[in-house]
Amino acid sequence: MAQIITNQASLNYEYNGQTASVLSNVATATLGEAISVEKVSLEDNYRLGSEITYSVSFLNSSGSTLTNVTISDDLGAYPVGGTSAVPLSYLAPAILFIDGVYAGNITPTIGTGISFTVPSLAAGSRAQIVYRAAANNYAPLSEGGTVTNTVTVRADGLTGSVSDSDTVAADSYADVTVTKTMSPQNVLDGDAITYTFVINNYGNAPATNIVLSDAFDPAPENISLQVNGATVAPENYTYVGGVLTFPSDGSAYELSLPAAEITSDPNSGLVTVVPSTVTVTVVGVI
User: Fold this and answer.
1) Assign residue 87 a region: left if phi > 0, alpha if psi is -120 to 50, beta otherwise?
2) CA neighbor of 9 nearest in space, from 20, 21, 23
3) Predicted model pTM
């Protein structure tokens, strides 16, 4: 960002054995930056493990070539309990463009953050680095969470640096999984068999209107259904030709899951997700 410079001079003088002083007008000038930077992300939201693509563009506005231009990204660094945990993990490769022309891959120095070096950038030239990062276990996952990371550009011969930041918000979503098991593992014709469905929600938003469907083969007979150990009335599910649908269309029964329990350790910053869970059990005779 350009800086307005202001300056005012004072003048002392003598006359007839007396002293006096006078101030000049206030002069102004604009101090422009030799280099400017813009950082943007191509994604608006993130989830745990999701990738975010960043573009960092910087322009040499000076009249001479800049050397050893370093571009440092803090990967969303923020202090957590005195640690230097960062919510983003760099993903190689990174790509460099000079004046819109592909110039090859560029490898950063990796520490808490990352730092790229462009050996030289001609006067009036613009460079762009495109790279990816993934939201890790230190990224805030609750609704309203954000990750803000800042890029800083320096070069030899420049006394200052320029920076720009980008903020990506945590997505609001349900992340539902279902795991099915059968018991016993060895079953004979005419024996009872139990199908257990464990449904988890790892997201930060509730999952509603869940419908469980299964085409059993072979199809058990005389089935009964329970949710978390409570028997469900047969009018709340359909079972036709070995195909189970629960809840059935038009049923007043609602199968849903609240949001997961998401916590952040105040000392390490590590985010823990404990999913909400519902267990559906189907028992029949094979």
Assistant:
1) alpha
2) 23
3) 0.79
